[in-house]
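Why do we care about 3D structure at all? Because function follows from shape, and shape follows, mostly, from sequence. That is the central idea of this module. The next example makes it concrete: a single protein chain, its amino acid sequence, and then its structure expressed as tokens.
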Amino acid sequence: MFILLLISLLWEATLGLPYGWWAFQDAQMTGLRITAWSRLPIEEVFVWIAVTYATVIVYENVRRWQSTERSLLQALFGSNKLSGSASKSGYSRQ
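And the structure:
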């Protein structure tokens, strides 16, 4: 995950900002900038960290879901069968 974050931040700071691909509105920013990287707004760093983390989490969850060989609805919400633990414990619905 660290490598993915590092590559994306370096790409943005070395290619995106100097060539003016992003038009940040100074009035909408907090004012904190990383001056060594073409005045990269600090908000952009936090967005890249959050996106990288979310991408890795989604990838890992999909990978685990596919390895279970269950349908998406079963993986997300469980099966609609009553588990046998309630009937074996002696408790019944009344």
